[in-house]
Design a protein that fits this description.
The structure is a homodimer of 296-residue chains. With 296 residues, chain A is mostly helical. Chain A has helices at residues 7-25, 34-44, 51-59, 67-88, 105-108, 111-130, 136-150, 155-164, 172-197, 202-229, 232-235, 241-244, 250-254, 256-272, 282-293; strands at residues 98-99, 102-103. The radius of gyration of chain A is 18 Å and the shape is globular. Chains A, B: InterPro entries: Isoprenoid_synthase_dom_sf (IPR008949), Polyprenyl_synt (IPR000092), Polyprenyl_synt_CS (IPR033749), Prenyl_diphosphate_synthase (IPR053378). Chains A, B: One of its GO terms (biological process) is terpenoid biosynthetic process.
């Protein structure tokens, strides 16, 4: 983030850049099979805050990442995120009709198409990284961290733990492990990919990991807070569904006030981890403030 | 295939090798989340003829591929194949209860778990390739061809075309395009990955592509023939379901006799494409005979 632009300007320009990268790297709607490619764009381009791409771009300012590499990383991780949302919304999972204020993919198209959309968005994520315009080592490193963060020991595994525990009394450490896998791993991965593209040292990567782990946890706590305190229109998805499904949450385990306090403390610790990067980490710092203060 | 062992011996030893590679490269059942990892192994290790791994190993005999690279390639492509079967069997797709003579994953576990099993097997495929013990170029090349063969312009795209055409009058060229994407792409990919691991020249890769395209088409024609002429127990899956679902097939478009004749001609052409490889291509030749003559 240059010293000459404000964070709102950075945010607007990088959100736009993430949309442009998605538009450029997804298959055109006219590509056969057209209905599938339309549905893939519907799923990936239907708005959203683009938090993961923004984390990629922000971490990409810490070193010498090329713009094209960051665009590939940002798009790949957003494809993974979009695939997970499409599959989560299916009737056999959360059975949700509303996502980002619009009908979910299986409502706008059909269930079988939604299944294939998720499958093909995941494949495209890895294809984009394999074909990215950077060194073979950077590409393979990004593919490895994305696979680890999204597979059975990451996001998909967190989903499985979530499913197993509906209606059960998960304790706080169990809840943290579940969220660390289900949402934390992919948020951390976004920051890592930006760092890999920037050719950071191992010590620098450790600082980034510390930042992203604290931030991921704070983000999920706030998600649980908002699920209780906000309405569906503001969230762009169905509010109160965790309580309705009797799922354990930070709010149900900690209470609302303590959950908010914890999120604030984690935010402070996350930002402190960026100290050694100086002003290069301004965008990462501002994103941490934005992600934890949302809904205020 | 060494001159000193017979093809049945080669087949038995390489089928076993493919099982061992799967066992070594899939996460252990004891890894958390245990239920998901158990279900992933149930899906991938439940038998099957291992045609794609065998094609990888057979093509891997044409050059200087390392055993570890071939094991990674064989396991990755079998993970993709297994994921596609798990998702295809779901109620919103083919709604099948039987696969390889056992309950399908969503019957043995549940739908949500089956969805995650497919998702996570796909991820694992790319992770295995990214971490394979060979040059960065070979790894990236294998990831690229696997993504292209399995994504929206390959297998998943073929599925989408198949869905769109249930009950419609797809003509022969439409049917061929659909099958080339739905099953042909992954069979070709198996051969290609073996060739990439063997560091073959571009001209040699062209011969392999010719072989695998003819073989893939012949294989699908025979699949349609067997769907009509065989029973569920012999197939290990529900027989007669294409006709029951009013799907166009080679048999419904060509008639049984002509379909069989076409498959034989394609088999001969596929084998002819291997001429320049001499005795190194013995296993590929025998696999073509096996794949097209099955059910006889």
């Amino acid at each position: 983030m240059s010293e000459f632009i404000s964070f709102p300007e950075w945010l607007a320009s990088h959100t736009q850049r993430s949309e442009q990268a998605l538009d450029a790297l997804l298959d055109a709607e006219a590509t056969i099979p057209t209905r599938l490619h339309q549905a893939m764009r519907y799923a990936a381009q239907g708005g959203g805050k683009r938090i993961r791409p923004l984390l990629v771009y922000a971490a990409g300012e810490l070193g010498d990442a090329s713009p094209a590499t960051l665009d590939a990383a940002a798009t790949a991780i957003e494809c993974i995120h979009a695939y997970s949302l499409v599959h989560d919304d299916l009737p056999c999972m959360d059975d949700d009709d509303l996502r980002r204020g619009r009908p979910t993919v299986h409502k706008a198209f059909d269930e079988a198409t939604a299944l294939l959309v998720g499958d093909a968005l995941q494949t495209r994520a890895f294809e984009i990284l394999a074909l990215a315009d950077c060194s073979a080592e950077v590409r393979l490193s990004m593919i490895s961290v994305l696979a680890a963060a999204s597979g059975s020991r990451g996001m998909a595994g967190g989903q499985a733990i979530d499913l197993e525990n509906v209606g059960k009394k998960l304790d706080l450490s169990g809840l943290q492990q579940m969220h660390a896998m289900k949402t934390g791993a992919l948020l951390s991965c976004a920051v890592q990919m930006g760092g890999i593209a920037s050719h950071l040292s191992q010590a620098q990567m450790m600082h980034l990991q510390n930042y992203s782990q604290k931030l991921g946890l704070a983000f999920q706590i706030i998600d649980d807070v908002l699920d209780v305190t906000s309405d569906s229109q503001t969230l762009g998805k169905t509010a109160g569904k965790d309580a309705a499904q009797d799922k354990p949450t930070y709010v149900s385990l900690m209470g609302l006030d303590y959950a908010r306090k914890q999120a604030q403390e984690l935010q402070v610790e996350a930002i402190a981890s960026l100290a050694s990067f100086g002003s290069k980490a301004l965008a990462l710092k501002e994103l941490a403030l934005l992600m934890v203060n949302r809904g205020k």
